[in-house]
Each structure stands twice: as C-alpha cells, then as structure tokens.
Write a structure and sequence with these properties.
two-stranded antiparallel sheet, ten-stranded mixed β-sheet, single chain, binds nicotinamide-adenine-dinucleotide, 360 residues, alpha/beta
Length: 360
C-alpha cells in the first residue's frame, strides 16, 4: 500500500515540545496498527525567520500541497515582523493555500477532569477563509489600511459560497451527532454581511430533515455558553466569532491545553491545537500536549474516511481513548490541570496506555 505523507511543522515556543510529544504517540500508533504513514519535517516561524528571513517559505507551501495531511504546531504570529519583512502567518497561509475552509473545534468535558461546565459536548464549526480576518480578504493588497495616522480601517468579507459550504460541513456533522445546529451571527448589527451568512446557513440547514436549527446572536451566545453549554451540539459561525467562542468553550470544558482542532477542506486537512504558542511556559516541559494529540487523532480520522483505511480510524479512536484515560488520573496530568507531570512524561503515559493489549 502506498504511504500517506504527513508534513510536520513544529511552530514556535511550546510548539516543538508538544509536537515531539504528540509524534511519539503517533509513532506508537503506527507500530501498533501498521499505519501506512511517513513523515516529512520542515521549519516555519522564528526558526525559519532566523535562517531564511521569512516565517513561511514557498517550499513549505509546496510540500504542504503535496502532503496527504499536515501537523501544525502553534505559531507566535503576534511576535512576527510585518509581512513585507518576512512575517507571514503560517496558519492563515496554509488555510488559504489549501482552502481549509472548516475549522472543527470540539469542546467536551472529560470524565474526572475538573471543568467549569461538566457534561458539555459540543463542536464549533468556524469558517476559516474570510470574515473579520483582514489578512485573507483581498486579492491584492492588505485588508487593513490607514488613510491617516489616526484612522485604521479593516475589510470584513462574507460570501454566499463560503457561508454555504461551512453551513454544509456543520450540518453533515450535526446529523451524525445529536441533530441540533446553532447558527451564530451578529445579523442585528452587521445586517448585510451577517445577514447574508445567516440567510445562506438557514437555507442549507433546511435541506436536512430532522435537524433542529436555531439562530443566536453572538453576544447572547457568549452568555448562553457559560450558562448552559450542555444545551449545544454543533455551532456554526463566522471566522472571528468562532475563534473567540471556541476559546471560551475550551476553557469551560477544562482548559486550552485540551482544545484540539482540525482545519479541513475538500482535498486537504491540517491538525492544529486551538491554543497559541504559550511563550510564558516555553522550554519548561510544562505544556499540555493533549490538544495537539486530539487534533492528530482528528486528522487520522479524516484520512481514514478520505482513503477508506479502517485502521487509521481505529488508531484515531484508540489515541483519543488512551489520552482520555490518562487525563482521568489526577496523578498523571500536566500542571495546567493541577497535575505533577511534564509534557514528555504525560506523553509517555499515553504511549504506555496505547501499547496495552485491548481487553475485549
Ligand atoms: P496562548 O494560547 O498561547 O496562551 C494563553 C494561555 O494559555 C497562556 O497562559 C498559556 O500558558 C496557556 N496555554 C496555552 N496552551 C497551553 C498548553 N498546551 N498547555 C498549558 N497551557 C497552555 O495565547 P497568547 O499567549 O495570547 O498567544 C501567544 C502567541 O500565540 C501569539 O503570538 C498569538 O498570536 C499566537 N496564537 C497562535 C495560535 C495558533 O497558532 N493557532 C492561536 C492563538 C494564538
């Protein structure tokens, strides 16, 4: 069987630490399930800036285009120089170049792990290619500009096509889960742009019989998420609202260190933790690698469906379960969850759990 090629981009600060930890687990899964995977590594971010003067090179973009899947570590995007001085955001460059339009961000409370909101299990489906993110809205030039030193403007883009396809991705997920879709917008103020998003999302959702559909304004949604996160199943929204609400949901479910995510398009997918590069704990062996491990499991599942390889799905399920099992033991957690273990020791426990014989 031909091998599937995964491109590994470790990113900045805690990125290399959690990527090494997560890859150790993937290596164990490859051995156990005889997975047809091979890895290629490339540098992005500060490492690439230092050596080559840019944070994301054309050769990395090309390697990503040729890969079957990508594992992206968190990047210090805020710390890069402006784009014209080499500071490209690898995450947005990859989302655009590979048309990774759906950012799937699950948040579930985990048995035994203290959470602000126990019993929640929801997925935020965030549009990834337009919206308030001015860096991806223009054919040429920047979507942010300053007509005078005292005035800054940004272009927000919403299209019917992007709204329809993100709504479809959310509906497809919702019908396989608890069959409830919540559309989130600010259509009361952004009447044209979010009005368009809402119109298209509702029209796609109407094609799915048996799906309960509701619409909630984003400010009210921030309250509902805190008050009753258990009431939600699949939430679909535009780019920035999805980014913010998913961090809120992650924190409610136990913390950012648990927040996995997949960026998926029709032909490519990229595993990427929802959190950033955490400079405050970089190099201390303190980062929780769970978010990237869960993201990797989501990528394996996506590859399983795309290539019809059942053992990739089996490996994804087992990685997910092994991580949950280790997290359930307070003595085996990382310090963000009040535990005593470092990044590598935690990953070793997940590996050990993965290697155990399955008792049927
Ligand atoms: P952050 O998500 O990096 O950190 C926020 C807080 O959460 C910090 O206290 C950090 O220590 C903690 N944290 C995050 N991940 C953790 C983990 N795995 N284990 C334990 N604790 C964890 O947010 P920030 O500090 O605002 O951003 C740092 C950099 O990351 C910035 O340059 C920002 O632009 C970038 N960023 C990148 C991504 C991405 O690549 N997907 C996402 C968000 C932020």
């Amino acid at each position: 069987m031909p091998k599937l090629n995964l491109l590994v981009l470790p990113g900045d600060h805690i990125g290399p630490e959690i990527t090494a930890a997560a890859l150790g687990i993937l290596e164990e899964a490859r051995r156990r399930f005889d997975l047809p995977l091979e890895f290629r590594h490339a540098e992005i971010g500060h490492a690439s800036l230092k050596k080559m003067g840019h944070s994301f090179s054309g050769s990395v973009a090309e390697a990503a285009r040729n890969a079957d899947g990508i594992i992206l570590g968190p990047c210090d995007t805020y710390g890069y120089p402006p784009a014209d001085q080499g500071g490209t955001n690898p995450s947005s460059a990859l989302r655009l170049a590979l048309d990774l339009y759906a950012n799937i961000r699950p948040s579930r409370s985990i048995a035994g792990v203290p959470a602000l909101a126990p019993g929640m299990d929801l997925v935020i489906v965030r549009e990834n290619t337009e919206g308030f993110y001015a860096d991806r809205n223009m054919f040429a030039g920047s979507g942010e500009f300053m007509p005078t030193p005292e005035v800054a403007l940004a272009v927000r883009k919403i299209t019917a096509q992007a709204s329809r396809r993100i709504a479809r991705a959310a509906c497809e997920l919702a019908v396989k889960r608890r069959k409830k879709l919540t559309i989130v917008s600010k259509a009361n103020v952004l009447k044209l742009s979010d009005g368009l998003f809402l119109r298209e999302a509702k029209s796609v959702a109407a094609e799915y019989a048996g799906l309960a559909v509701e619409h909630i304004l984003v400010d009210a949604m921030a309250s509902h998420l805190v008050r009753s996160p258990q009431a939600f199943d699949v939430i679909v929204t535009t780019n920035m609202f999805g980014d913010i609400l998913s961090n809120q949901a992650a924190e409610l479910s136990g913390g950012l260190g648990l927040a996995g995510s997949l960026n998926a398009g029709d032909a490519h997918a990229m595993a990427q933790a929802s959190h950033g590069s955490a400079p405050d704990i970089a190099g201390m062996d303190r980062a929780n690698p769970s978010a990237l491990i869960f993201s990797m499991a989501m990528l394996l599942d996506w590859l399983a469906k795309r290539h019809s390889i059942q053992r990739l799905a089996d490996a994804a399920t087992l990685i997910d379960r092994a991580t949950l099992e280790v997290l359930a033991d307070p003595a085996l957690r990382t310090s963000d969850l009040g535990g005593p273990l470092g990044t590598l020791a935690f990953a070793r426990e997940v590996r050990r759990c993965l290697a155990k014989p399955v008792v049927s």
